[in-house]
Every structure is written in structure tokens, then in C-alpha cells.
Amino acid sequence: MQIPPAGIRLLDARRLMIIVLVALNALYAPAHAELLNTENTTADTTVNSNKKAAPVPEQTLPEVSVSARRIEDERIDTTRAITTITTEDLERLQPATLFDAIRDVPSVAINGGPRPSGMSFNIRGYADNEDVAVKVDGIPKGFEKYRMGGTFLEPELLKSVEVQRGPQITSGSGSLGGTIIATTKDAADLLQPGQRYGARAKFGYANNNDEYSRSYMVYGRPDDRIDILFNYSNRQSNDIMQPGGTKLESSAISSISKLLKVSVFPSESVQLTTSVVSFEDSGLQPYDATGGQPGTFGNVIRSIEDLTWSETLQYRPDNRWVDFKAIFGKGYTDLHDLIRPGMSSINPLCTPILCRGNLNDYYRYETTNLDLSNRSRVIENKDWSLELFLGLQYNKNKREVSRYFDNTAYSQTFYPDGFNASAPPGTKSYVAYYLQPKLTVGRLSIMPGFRKDFYQVDAAGGTLALLEQYDQAATIKFRQESYSLGLAYALLPQNSNQQLTLYSNYGQGFRPPLVDEYFTQGVFSRCLSFFMSNGPDSQICGDLYRPQTSESTEAGISYQTPRLFGSDIQLTSKLNFFHIRTSHLLTSLRQNDAGEIVQDGWERRNGVEFESTMSAGKLYGRVSYSRISGALFDGKEYVPLYTVPGNALNITLGANLHARVDANISYRRVAQRTVVTAGGGSIPLEFGTQDGYEVFNAGIHWAPTSHMGFRLIGENLANKEYRLDGAFGGTIGNVAPGRNIRIVAEFTY
């Protein structure tokens, strides 16, 4: 049996890390020589002026910059639907997954779960993996597999997570819902003033599933021109326990993550950063991990290896025309599903007549990315200013899929040379450019934007022969233009210590069909002759598809003050309303009664989002609320938009009880939501409701010394039984985990 070559394995990752270190050493040597011959060199030459030593471990007040006039809270963007989860938030929450880290962001929900491989993001009711883009250190991730989540990242490696709701000009296709931007840690974020080297060891235990986690980190700045960090994390657990003591089968975790990050500063205006992130996971998992009832198709022995590396160049000279950033990198995801006879309906038990043997599915995704951007301050004077933001992007996503049975005769008959027509291989690539000027006149800001994408999708493998015999194109090309406009008006004068801003944003986005959708042949194709008599003879849809598009309109008001009503309360709040129209739903491609091939499905969304952060002396708090409603036309019937999450209220309150003790409590209330209970395909959908729920969490942090800290975290303290949102077809979700008590011990040097 021919086994396809594996992707980048652990040994390859180690070799890559060695190559990176050697290359950076070569860069560092001349820079060091320059440093020795330079007088009066400052102690810190980082490009970003906000680079500073990490706060002492016991400091837990919100990360805001305070002046006599204004505050800058990095958590809430005051004119756009962008929220940032900071280092402090991640330290306090200690999330087990990236999904846990962003649950409290308005209009964000998690579909599927509680297994990490069964989770996907839901932003404003866009619930498919292809509707929410994920980037790690600037590199997009792009894994797609039937009924499986596609985000593999250990939160212990992260410095911050930015959540963009709705398409932004830099995010491109596949971000109708939004974009998750994860940034990994740096040594400069952890070192104390005057410290050159440091180390951290963290150990955790969770009682719900007997999870043991450990993390080891070493970091340093041996010289002012180099920053090095390495982190190793290991997470092992048994199956999750649901309220009532029921075990969630096949939910154990066995993952290993690594991060190597090196930054070099050849001069005060140049920063070169290399980041290598790897993730490995293996174990028994449901084949349909994101389904409302995972395990319907049985279990698989699943192995995942994911690696992302990026090279980032920042050039910021003392020149108003140049603020340049270049990101180049690659991402690799390798998945192997082993299904023994009888483990799944996909591979039934052996019979006296036929034994297929073990089934092996291989998926490999390779992403190549280049992102160039520059921001220029074209005009600057006291009355008005003009900035220009320009960018050029290239992305290529190559997908390789193969299926083999141990019974080679059976395998070659139904899957010749590993080709599975229902999961075709192929490549999707694009080149895009964008420009976004920003004109500020007094208190008014105007920010139009334009983006143009040039897309190409290529079939590969056995699909080429299927298309050739019907003289059908194996390459599909199209262009897509997207426009945006942002308006903001400051109601208070610039010399005020408060900011009250009205704003409105308009943005267009699109989602191209997947390789699967373009080139699938078989039961998953929407162009089967039974349903589409006027469709292609190959029953492969190909260029019948057009991109799915969206138009988003937002309006809102934000307020910031360092002294609320003259007190010491620092407050940032924002209220946002949005309306989104999605057209040409990919799922609505069909032949109508007149025999025409149409794609006329649409969705409508209306929503409101509120978020606020507060700090007052030793107290701090955060509140978010979101409500979304909508309707859907699938080409045949009008139905409720069943992918939107329930209305959600999140409240977090905390206090520094002592110089070394911090405590917080959080409350989440999610209202009932509409779910699909029956129907689909040619059968009309039937609907019901999924009950709402309330959950309480709490945590306390004690740092007896500056080198030692302990956290006690309680999740679902009331052991409430409730269901998560299903991640497939708007169905009801799985039962959530029961009460979980976690203990974390941290030691730093």
C-alpha cells in the first residue's frame, strides 16, 4: 500500500528552528559589531515605542495608559468593531483553548465542543470555518475537513488575541464573520527592568477530566539588539465529565505545543522577527467532531501536526512617508485518521464476504503567505491631516487528500491511487492590493477603502481526469472588488480629557467556494443530475458557483474618560448597531422550476453590541452584551436565521484585595436560541428552541513572592447542565462540561 508522504514532522521543525537560529546569528553578528563601535547607544532599540518590561506578577489592574487628559484602552477600539484580549486577560483567565479566551467578546460564540477538535468560531452568526479567518503571527490558517474544527493553537503561547467582527480591508476573503488575530509572546514582555535572562515554569491541574498541564519557558535579551524566547507546553487529560457524572466519550486531550521566537534589531528603525509555532495532538476522537451529537459516524484514531513559521520585517525610520511592514511565512497542517473495522459506519465490520481492513484518511494543508503594507503621513498640520495605508497580499493554500484501505484491491477499485472524489485535492490562491486613505479635518475623520482580489482555484489529482473527459475547465479564475468607508466625529474638543465619538462603518466582504464545493463529484455535489438536469455532465459544479458576498453597515457611539464624574474611575464604553446583508449563498446553488441555474439565497442580520471596561483604584470590571436576529432564504423557503447565537450577557468583576492577592468573579447569561430539529435537503426544515443558561466562574491569584504565584479557578461553579451551540446545520449542541476546579502554580526567575 502506498502511503502519502507526511508533512513537516517534529524532526523537520527542529531542523527549521536550527536554521533560523543560524541565520539570525549571522544577522546579529554585524549588528553586534556595530553596537560595540557606537557611542551613547540607548538601552532599548525596539521598533515599537510601547515595548516595555512586563509588570510584576501580582499586578492585575486593567492595561490602560493614563495621562492627565486622556486614556488609551487597548481592549476596545472606539470606532471599529474590534476587541482585544490582552496578556493580563489571558493570565487571569488561564484558558484551556483559544476558544475559551474569546467567549466574552460581544457577538462571539463557540460552536461545537467541548472537544478542541470539535470547536469552531461563530461571529455574528457566521458559523463555518470558512467565514471566520484565523491568523497566527500574521499567517492565515486554512484547514477544512468535514465536521471538524480547524484551529490548533495552545493559548499558553499567546500574548494577545484581537477579534475583528466583520470584514476589514486587510482581512480579505473568508472573513464575512470576522478575523481572529493571535500574537505570540516576546521576551521583552516578560523581563523585569534590568533583567537580561529569565525563565518560567507553570504547572496546572483540572479536576473535571484529570487534566495535567505544564509549560516551560526560557527567554532573554543577551544584548539590546536581540530578543529570544522558547516555550514548551504539554496538556494531557482523561475524558470530560458532564453534570450528573456522565462521561463524554472520546474527549481526552493529548497535546504538545512549542514556540520559538527570535527578534533582531539591526538598527533603531529595523526589527526582524522569526516565529515558529508547532502543535501536536493525538487520540481517539469522534469522526464528526463538530456535530450536535458527535459520534454518529463513529470514532477515529486521529493524529494532528500543525506548524506555522513567519518572518516579519518592520522598518520605521524617522520619515513620515515610511512605516513599512512585511510578513512572509508558511503554515502546514497534517491530519491522519485511522478507522479500524467497526469503529465507524464509514468502515463497517469485516464479513465472510468482504473485509476492507483499516481505513486511513490523510489530509495535508500547506499555506504560503506574503503581506506587505505601508502607512504614510502625507499631510500633517494643525487644521487637517491625511494618511495613506497601502497593502499587497499573496496567499496560496494547497490541499492534498487521500484515502487508503488495507485491502488494496478494494481500495484501488473505489479509491484509485488514494483519490476520493468526495474530498478532492486542489489549490486556491490569490493576489490582492488595497488602499485606505484617512482624512482628518478638525473633529471629523473620513476613511474610505478599496480592495481588489485576483483569485485562482486549480483542481488536482484524480479530479483532472474526471474534468478532462467532459472538457470542463480545471482552473477557475475571478476578480472581486470590495469597498469600505469609515466615518467618525468627536463630539468633544481635543483638549478635553474625555472622548465622546460618533462613528459609522460600511464594509463589503466575500467568500469564494471551497475546493470541495468547486470540484466535488458524488453525493456531496450540488450538481447531481437527479437535482440539476441542466447541469454539467460531469456532475461537478465548477464555475457554476459565484462568490458569496456581504455588505455590512455599523453605527455607534463610544465614550472614554479617566475621571468619571470627577472620581478615580477610568471608563471605556461602546454601543454598536449593525445590519448585514449576505447574498448568493453557496448553499443555494440549484436549478429552479424554469430550468435555470441560480444562486439566489440570502441572509439578513440585525444586531446590537455593547462592551465596557472599568477600573477604579483596586477594582476593575468588564461588561459585554450582544443580541442578533435575522432571516434566511435558502432558494426555496424563508426561515429564521438559525446560525445566530442566543443573546448573551457577560459580566466580570475583580479586585486587588492585597498587593499580592487578586480575585475575580464572572457571570454569563445566554438566552434560548432557534435550532433545526428536522428536515433538510428536499425536506422542509422544522425548528425548535435550545434552552438558555447561566454560568458562574471565579478565580483568585496569590503571589507570595515576586517569583512565585498560585491561581485557583472555578468554572461552571453551580455544575449547571446546559447545551453548547451545535456546529453543523444549526442543530442543538452537546452537553457542556460540568464543574471544573483548576489549580495553577507558576515559578519565575
UniProtKB/TrEMBL annotation:
Residue span, TonB-dependent receptor plug domain: 76-179
Domain of life assignment: Bacteria
Biological process terms in GO annotation: siderophore transmembrane transport
Subcellular location: Cell outer membrane
GO molecular function annotations of the record: siderophore uptake transmembrane transporter activity
GO cellular component, one term: cell outer membrane
Limits of the TonB-dependent receptor-like beta-barrel domain: 286-717
Topology of the protein relative to the lipid bilayer: Multi-pass membrane protein
SUPFAM superfamilies, A to Z: Porins
Keyword Transferase (UniProt): no
InterPro entries from the UniProt entry: Beta-barrel_TonB, Beta-barrel_TonB_sf, Plug_dom, Plug_dom_sf, TonB-dep_rcpt-like
Keywords: Cell outer membrane, Membrane, Receptor, TonB box, Transmembrane, Transmembrane beta strand, Transport
Keyword Nucleotide-binding: no
Chief localisation class: membrane
Family the entry assigns: Belongs to the TonB-dependent receptor family.
Name assigned to this protein: TonB-dependent receptor plug
Organism lineage: Bacteria, Pseudomonadati, Pseudomonadota, Betaproteobacteria, Nitrosomonadales
